[in-house]
Write a structure and sequence with these properties.
It contains 14 helices and no strands. The chain is mainly alpha-helical.
């Protein structure tokens, strides 16, 4: 559920992680841009399908099985990547699913799925998006300057049986263009439309700590959000390695 920018920061960290096995790291390095695209791919919207069609869980569901395992169960052909580029893309996809799985289990379920005293479900929905934007704005400056150009050079080639190349390419262009030198983040615009607030209204809340406290921190401790990457990053790395081992040892 974190934003594409937050997922890209996770992807960048993986390239510098000494705990990644050498053969896996070589694969990621050989197909770096494709791996980056995989890390944002699940957030593409397939016409006529819900979010669960690309994430393999529903928002309020208690997740009991790793999401990448659900994906392989639903689409067994993904257990046999077409080539190294396809494999790298799937590894990125799995990293994204892992981050979202951790976020759902450790943040959404205990902090946003329970009632907030004196607040409505809409208040909670707004609070969740404020938390996501908070992390997004912290992560965006960390993304390497050539990331947009790298993403835009990747050409999908039938990598997902549940997502047409045209949909993935459009999503690639939407995210990649925001990261070009003359690009601009559209996170507030997109999330604002979801929660019924204008970008300037969101900006006002985020810039006023007292207001943000009444809208979010009074109900979800600030450190739960600020330290979330300390939890979802190692989880994503471990799931990435697990998926890699599963594919390479079960031809």
């Amino acid at each position: 559920m974190p934003t594409p920018f937050s997922h890209l920061v996770v992807a960048q960290q993986l390239f510098d992680d000494a705990q990644i096995p050498p053969m896996l790291m070589r694969l990621l390095e050989q197909h770096k841009a494709t791996f980056l695209l995989g890390n944002i791919a699940p957030d593409a919207r397939v016409p006529g399908a819900g979010r669960d069609a690309t994430h393999f869980y529903r928002f309020n569901e208690v997740i009991k099985e790793h999401l990448w395992k659900r994906m392989l169960a639903a689409f067994p052909t993904l257990s046999q990547p077409q080539n190294g580029q396809h494999f790298a893309f799937l590894l990125g996809y799995v990293a994204h699913l892992a981050v979202d799985e951790w976020w759902a289990v450790e943040v959404v379920h205990p902090h946003f799925a329970r009632p907030w005293q004196g607040k409505t479900i809409r208040d909670q929905f707004i609070g969740l998006h404020l938390a996501l934007i908070y992390l997004d704005e912290r992560d965006l400056p960390q993304i390497k300057k050539n990331t947009g150009q790298s993403l835009l050079r990747v050409e999908p080639d039938g990598w997902l049986p549940f997502m047409p190349d045209s949909v993935l390419s459009s999503w690639r262009d939407f995210v990649g263009s925001q990261l070009l030198p003359d690009g601009e983040s559209r996170t507030m615009e997109i999330y604002g439309a979801r929660i019924g607030l204008k970008p300037k209204e969101i900006r006002h809340i985020l810039d006023d700590e007292a207001i943000l406290k009444t809208r979010l921190w009074d109900y979800v401790p600030k450190n739960v959000i600020t330290t979330a990457p300390d939890g979802f990053y190692p989880f994503a790395r471990d799931q990435l390695i697990m998926f890699y081992n599963h594919i390479t040892t079960n031809p």
